[in-house]
Every structure is written in C-alpha cells, then in structure tokens.
Design goal:
Helices cover 23% and strands 21% of the residues. It is an alpha+beta fold and 468 residues long. The strands form 4 sheets. It has an 8-stranded antiparallel beta sheet with strand order 12-13-14-15-16-17-18-19. Helix 2 crosses helix 4. The chain is globular.
Length: 468
C-alpha cells in the first residue's frame, strides 16, 4: 500500500451497504462486543466497516486486535527468507540447526506445513492463557508424547511446531524472533501497528456467556516460547498492507516466486476437487469458485481472519474481540465475494510485449502430445504457457532459465523441465528441422504423432488410416 485511497477508489453505495450488512449480521448473530471488517483491492485498503463498541469508543482500522495464528504466516516468511539466503534448506531436519530431540526427524518443510507429526498443543496448563515463564526453555513446551504421528505421514496442526520455527529464526539470526520480524518484515511493509504486545488503542478480549448476554474478561499474557504460534496484535490497516504483500510480494521482504511457493499446497493434490489445504505456513481454501490464501486465528478473547484472492486482487479481513461466536473466516471470505460480485475487477489492459525473441515467437501455436492438442503461448520475460486446447490434459506456466530451458511453475509440471529439441538441421526454433518439445520426457510435436523419429516407440510407417 503506497498511498491513501481517494474518493474515486471507494466502493459504490450499494457495495458499502452489502459489506457493512455482512459485518453487522456477524457481530449481532455472533454476539461479539466488536467486529471490524475490511476489504483490500489492488493493494489498497478499499473499505472498512465496524460494529459494536470498545467501552465508550468505536473501533476503527487503527485499533489493535490479537490475531492468533495469523502470526504463523509471519514466522513462515522469516523462515523462507533464511532459505532464500542459503542459510537453510527446507529438507533439512530441524536437528541440523537446533538441539530439540523432541522434534524427531521432522524437517523444516514439515514444520511449516504441519506434517511434522508433533503434538497439536504445548504441555499444560493451557498455554494460551498462562504466562510463558511456565515454559522457559524450548524443551519445556513438550509433554510426555511430543510426537503423535510419523513425520511426513499426515497433516496434523501443531502449535509447538511453529514455536520451534521461531526458535530456529532466533538461532540463525542471533536475535529474538519478534525483533527480526520488526526489522525484516514489519518496517519494510509499513506495519507500525503490529506488535507482540498490545499498544493503545487496542481492544480488550472478552468471553461471552453462552446463555446470557454477559461478559468475562480474558487474560492477554505473553506466551514466551509459544509466542511464534499466536502472539501478535495488529490492525485492519496493517493487515491490509500484509494482504497486499501476500498477493503481490515485495522484493524488500520476499521474492514473489517464493510467496507463490508458500501458497501452493504442501502435498499438491492431483485433482481440482479439494476445498481446503495448507502450504508453507499459509492456509488455503476454495470459496465461491475462487482460491483464497491466508490464515485464521484465535486466542482467548479474540478471533481473526485474513483471506486473499490473488486472481481478483481482493482480500477480506475480519477481527473480533470474542473468544468464540462470530465465524470470522466466513466473514472475511464473504467480504471478498461481495466485493467481487458487486464490482468485478477490471482486467489489466492488454499491451504488447516490450520485446520478443523471433525464435520464441516461432515456437508458439499448436503442439500435440500424441493425438492431444495443446497451445503454446509466449509470456513476459521469455516465459511460456502450455495449455490443452480441448480442456482435457495437463497445462502449466514455465519460467525461462539461463541455460535455455524452462521450469514448470504450477500443476502437474511444477518443477519439471521443458526443453526445445531441434533436429539435425540446426535451424531456428520452429523451422523445418523437426523441432519438438521434451517436457519431463513427454514429447510434443507439431503434428499428431509426427513421423519424424521423435515420438518414443516410433510411429507406424503407414500413418493415419481409415477404420477397418
């Protein structure tokens, strides 16, 4: 977020009413003392709506709420910065960097994706409501059975796992994780109102009696070693900046390609039917036909949610000061839906590529994997996109590499290598020298089962024929 929005950037009156009504219904039906909703559009805080009160005042976009497990996404960003700097590998066992026998053989990637097999919660008493002094050392966060599943076997949400990742950041940076976060993430993104402890103005956390409209204050303790799992406080305005970062990236903090890696399911499904998943420190969900990324969070007295739809350039944020009640995850997702339905995003204007290699232009057009037609298109920065023409088949986008190959970015071919193979003629791509594409050993030719020797197993010399 680079500048405040002007009047022309605000939603239309009908949109504002629909957004505010969603927040109002959630606050009333969820019986929350207060609820703040916000929408981010194209990197800007586009709309904020509030219901309820904080004593004698009304919350606004600058009021701090505790954001719970949204904290985990910030810790994951710090870990990925360490990876990008070459200070660790995601496949490293944690024991390579920290002496924590309780973690077994779990790798850093498994900790980030909650597939480490570690227990869901820290050793009692209830860590979210008790001070961190009860668990002064890393080993103190574990009970008698720290491992509940074999590492890598299944997704099992683990708060202690992110406590270990925070300790990892501290070990490799030589400073407390929250200081590293402030220096490396919060300050570059302009998130001055995000902090490990509350700063006025902030909401007080409450529990609402299930059968009577009365309140009970909740403690807001410093959870110490467990803080990386859910300690942070933030505001709607700061989270709007963070949502813009999660969608578009910021080179000062993290390469957009690394963010794309974090947003991919850690164990990628082979079909499109999944509706919930987890990447590297980031939750994924499918709502109303769109993929949303972000996280939900809860701590005693507080609920939080941030869902962002990169394809729409929209994000929804919901913050409440109640232990339970309003379904803030659904509210945040609905704010995205309402904004998209009432004011669909404008497509980016078409512009020609600033430069294009003629040899790459000659590669574009139809290709065939056996009898299945595909279309190859040229994208910016020498990128390529291969997609099936009849809607059936595996497509992917590809990033150009310095060695003249391309690497798949998504779908079945993510991480796979695409090569252009030329025949003995040695001419340019797409020339009359029997060029073909080799994609992870799959061969694509200019004609269906082209009889040029490139198709593995050969092609019957009699070629295509009518039926018997």
């Amino acid at each position: 977020m680079t500048a405040p929005m002007d009047e022309t950037a605000q939603p239309l009156p009908a949109t504002r009413r629909a957004l505010l009504r969603r927040v109002a219904v959630a606050q009333t039906e969820g019986r929350a003392p207060s609820l703040v909703g916000a929408v981010v559009r194209d990197g800007q805080l586009w709309w904020v709506g509030t219901r309820g009160e904080l004593g004698r005042r009304t919350p606004d976009a600058n009021t701090q709420y505790r954001i719970g497990s949204l904290t985990k996404t910030f810790v994951a960003v710090l870990v990925m910065r360490l990876r990008d700097e070459g200070l660790l590998y995601l496949g490293d066992p944690l024991s390579r960097h920290l002496d924590v026998p309780e973690a077994g053989d779990a790798t850093i990637a498994q900790l980030l994706s909650h597939t480490s097999g570690l227990a869901a919660e820290a050793r009692g008493p209830w860590w979210e409501r008790t001070p961190g002094e009860l668990r002064p050392e890393t080993a103190d966060i574990f009970g008698e059975r720290p491992l509940r599943h074999p590492a890598g076997r299944r997704h099992h949400y683990s708060n202690p796992g992110f406590a270990l990742l925070g300790a990892l950041v501290e070990r490799l940076r030589g400073a407390p994780w929250d200081e590293v976060l402030r220096r490396e993430v919060l300050e570059p993104l302009g998130m001055a109102r995000t902090s490990p402890l509350p700063q006025p103005p902030h909401a007080e956390g409450w529990a609402v009696h299930p059968w009577a409209d009365v309140l009970l204050p909740e403690p807001a303790v410093d959870t110490g070693r467990m803080a990386p799992a859910g300690q942070l406080w933030s505001t709607a305005a700061d989270l709007a900046r963070y949502a813009a970062f999660l969608m578009d990236g910021d080179e000062r903090v993290l390469d957009p390609r690394t963010l794309a890696e974090m947003r991919a399911p850690a164990a990628a499904p082979e079909d499109d039917d999944w509706d919930a998943g987890y990447g590297l420190g980031i939750q994924l969900t499918r709502r109303d036909g769109r993929l949303l990324i972000g996280h939900t969070g809860s701590m005693p007295g507080f609920l939080a949610a941030l869902w962002a739809g990169p394809e729409d350039g929209l994000a929804g944020i919901a913050l409440a000061n109640a232990t339970s009640g309003p379904t803030v995850g659904a509210v945040a997702a609905d704010l995205v839906r309402i904004a998209a339905e009432h004011e669909p995003p404008m497509p980016a204007p078409w512009r020609p590529l600033p430069e294009a290699d003629p040899e790459l232009v000659a590669l574009t057009g139809p290709w065939y994997w056996g009898p299945t037609p595909f279309l190859l298109q040229l994208r910016p920065e020498r990128g390529l996109e291969l997609r099936p023409l009849n809607g059936r088949g595996r497509g992917s986008r590809f990033r150009a590499e310095p060695d003249g190959t391309w690497t798949g970015l998504d779908g079945y071919y993510a991480g796979e290598t695409l090569r252009v193979v030329r025949g003995a003629g040695g001419g340019p791509y797409g020339g009359a020298d029997n060029v073909h594409l080799d994609l992870g050993t799959f061969v694509f030719t200019r004609e269906p089962y082209e009889a040029d020797g490139a198709v593995p197993g050969g092609v019957d010399p009699q070629g295509w024929r009518p039926g018997a």
